[in-house]
Amino acid sequence: APAWLSLPTPPTAELHLHIEGTIEADLLVAAAKRNGVELPSYDPAVLTERYEHFADLQAFLDVHYANLAVLRTEQDFYELASGYLTRAAAAGVRRVEAFFDPQTHVNHGVPLGEVIGGLSAAFSKAEETHGISAVLLLSFLRDLGAQAAEEIFRAAMPYREHFVGVALDSTEVGYPPSLFEKVYGMAASEGLHRVAHAGEEGGPDYVVEALDLLGVERVDHGNRALEDDDLVRRLAEDGTPLTVCPLSNVYLKGVPSMAEHPLPRMLEAGLTVTINSDDPAYFGGYVDANYAAVAAQFELSRDGLAQLAANSFEATFSTPEQRTQWL
Ligand code: ES4
Ligand code: ZN
User: Fold this and answer.
1) If residue 117 lies in a helix (H) or strand (E), which one and from where to where?
2) Mean pLDDT across 41-69
3) Which of 138, 246, 261, 272 is deepest in the core (most CB within 10 A)?
4) 108 assigned to a ligand binding site
5) Using alpha carbons only, how large is the chain's radius of gyration in Å?
6) How far is it, in rounded angstroms, from Cα 305 to Cα 218?
7) Which residues contact 285 (CB under 8 A, 6 or more apart)?
8) Residue 200 catalytic?
9) How many CA atoms does the CB half-sphere of 138 hold within 13 Å?
């Protein structure tokens, strides 16, 4: 048997996780039935089949957003988050900083309070029920534009205590970080942490903009940063973490195969790489599957895996005292 098979995946922090991307087919069907929402099939096996073949990011997002119409009530959001936490605990997650996309749900007619109420009820008791420290990052959908981002940000202010930062996701190309400078300034004024997806499909210029104009503390994905040597040096010198999602990159064709994943080049360049699952219900497994995939592909040692896990804790929005509890 290959040596990596005997390597248990390490306890880790998960820093790139869309809570909506954890909706497994069983919850999809249950929520659709109780809320009277139509699905193309009510057979979890048929739905799961639909999950696994995407030409690119947009093809995934189209299926993803259609599925999310089933989420209507606080209970739905509570079950979504609790289901994830149960699976994350089994995958070795000790700390999660998860994105949620409030605009998707508000645009489906769900009150913002039900979305945040359900998610944060599950997250706030995750320590007790699963031994996981869990916090939320409010993510803006970049393809809805800056005005809409500012509107949801203002609407979320009554719930300020329920999230620790802001993020930027959805269709990347054509929606550069520069569009969101103002709302990120508002978030900074509120003392919120800031991250953004950049360099998944967009070029290295998107990563530079996220750093210079949005003040991000981590870069979500960041793969295409490797095309700019000055940028790579800057990220390495500053120790800016990249939240890399290996299986997602293969499923969404950001890389042609795991063998061609830039992870080894990132590590060689001295970048602070972390391993994450992105949308685990869709991309072949949870964070442990992502560790196992890169361990197998690149024959990482126990020390190599431990370094990636250490990076993940180091990259959290937390104090050193908190970190010692998770390690
Ligand atoms: C996403 Cl830009 C992006 N990548 C992966 N999953 C996502 N969910 C929402 N936006
Ligand atoms: Zn993502």
Assistant:
1) helix 112-124
2) 93
3) 246
4) no
5) 18
6) 20
7) 247, 277
8) yes
9) 29
User: In this predicted model, what pLDDT tens digit does every residue of 92-121 receive, in sequence order?
Assistant: 999 999 999 999 999 999 999 999 999 999
Cβ–ligand 1 distance for 170 under 6 Å, the answer: yes
- What is the ipTM score, two decimals? 0.92
Sign of CA dihedral 34, 38, 43, 46: negative
Q: How far is the CA of 57 from the centre of ligand 2 (A)?
A: 10
Pick 8-315's CATH classification: 3.40.50.2300, 3.90.25.10, 3.20.20.140, 3.90.550.10: 3.20.20.140
3-state secondary structure (DSSP) of residue 221 = strand
Q: What is the 124 CA–ligand 2 centroid distance (Å)?
A: 23
- Residues in Cβ contact with 257 at an 8 Å cutoff, skipping those fewer than 6 apart: 250
Whether 21 is in the pocket of ligand 1, judged by its Cβ within 6 Å, is: yes
Reduced to 3 states (helix: H, G, I; strand: E, B; else coil), residue 8 is: coil
For residue 198, the ligand closest to its alpha carbon is: 1
Single-letter code of the amino acid located at 45: A
Per-residue pLDDT tens digits for 269-293: 999 999 999 999 999 999 999 999 9
Confirm if 5 and 300 have CB atoms less than 8 A apart. no
Segment 143-169, tens digit of pLDDT: 999 999 999 999 999 999 999 999 999
Q: Which amino acid is at 28?
A: L
